[in-house]
Amino acid sequence: MKETVILGVDTSCDDTGVGVVRGGRVVANVVASQTALHTAYGGVMPEQASREHLSVIDTVLTRALLEADVTLDDVTHVAATYGPGLVGALLVGLTYAKGLAWARGLPFVPVHHLEGHIASALGASALGASALGASSLTENAEPPFLCLIASGGHTSLFDVRAWGDYGELGRSRDDAAGEAFDKAARLLGLGYPGGPALGRLAATGDPDAYPFTLPLRGQKGFDFSFSGLKTAVSVLLQRQPDADKADVAASFEHAIVESLVRTTLRAAAATGYGTLVVAGGVAANLRLRERLQETPLTVRVPPFELATDNGAMIALAAHARLQAGLDEGDLSVDATPYLPLSDASRTRDESARS
Length: 354
Ligand code: KG4
Ligand code: ZN
Fold this sequence. Notes:
alpha/beta
């Protein structure tokens, strides 16, 4: 079979990402961040996000092709996120990618955004040592494994039985972990998105200064809840306006990390998995990475540049789907803002029937 050159597009939220995966390896990953645009509002403005995607997507594609050292003639498949996400934002990348596939007569692979995050763990060998500095955490992982996705929009534990075959073990009942980081960072006056800034400040503080109660202690399941921690930070800052911000940040980060890690460890024990993939923007959190390395699990995290939203992870997911013999999708797929990952869990047989 001819070597595949897969173009992956993600415009689910506020980053315009186009990546190229050639023969299973990431050869380009270009992301145009909209952070500066949304900082003034303290969060993502959906309409502004869609317009910005539209104005930069051509340039992002051109840069990705240059970085990959390929032309459109070399591309064998086009993949794009079709959900979940902001509908206007999704529509831009999805329509652009479908149009490209149609015009060039190429197969189109629709990808679930979270499937992309899971597949980002496949990007390690391509970018790992050079982009990151060698790390034992960044080696490729093949299913089956347990997967913790912690991003700005989702926090879930998945049983990844095979590519395209996912079972959700638990999820956040309210805020996602990244969302909680962002909200706490805002309370601390750290700007948007606050996760990375809060992590940096936390590194200088005492994580035991303010012992926040861990959420959902005693539950039998594997759910998460983070909105109470954000409220605890708010109440603390109202009662003690002079509280040391680094200590508050460190204590808050400690509580989030402990909650994520302890629930994940219980899920690993219940499922019997020894390998854990951690993906999503919060996978970039250094304290989380350190804490996970202390556990008996074999932990795999994507390189930093593949942890937050990007197009390469969408191309990696498409590659994994094609390798697994799953459907190549079709051009009729629509942007779907609410989309459980179980809807992407289709086998070739199932897709042939539908
Ligand atoms: O996966 P992602 O790029 O976008 C979504 O799909 O949501 O995740 C973005 C989230 C933001 O909430 C951001 O604050 C958080 O990931 N984040 C972090 C760190 N880097 C990004 N949170 C904590 N520590 C970090 N180093
Ligand atoms: Zn994401």
